[in-house]
Design a protein that fits this description.
about 200 residues, alpha/beta, Rossmann fold, 14 strands, about 25% helix, globular
Amino acid sequence: MSVAVIDSGGANIGSVMFALQRLGVSGELTRDHGCIRSASRVILPGVGAAADAMTRLRDYGLDELIPTLTQPVLGICLGMQLLFEHSDEGDVECLGVLPGKVERMSAAENLPVPHMGWNTVAPLGELPLLAGVENQYFYFVHGYAVTGSASAMATSEYGTRFVSVAARDNFFATQFHPERSGAPGARLLANFLGE
């Protein structure tokens, strides 16, 4: 099992690498196209701003590489948002792998933005990625979200319902941080790794 973790400059890269180690898998942090293309699994992590992250991906030609990948790819948090078509955060065109637009979340009474903390994930259908973790709590930190997409596989609610898991072909994405979500997050990552 070779896992390429795309070096997108996100703040959650260390925790993703440690989560893989806890599962007995050695991830390789890389921007190398050959390494990414030949890996059996690819993870696109991300914490930060969409426009900055897309600039980094473009600087290394990763914006052209990622949509062409054929092995399983998992986008996490900002990594998920970058897989969609557009983000209002910096008004930036993203990778366009998943249909939909990332929009700023609206604050409501007792529900400040960003959404930080534990929340449940409600599957919309059967998805092997979510096997054994249906309706579990996962850890979220985000101020932007997708409220509707044909690729939605699970939703969560925070003032309004938003897409918390998306999938299309070999691309999977979670708005939450499985690497910071304890046993349910570890199980989800193991599902992604095919273990």
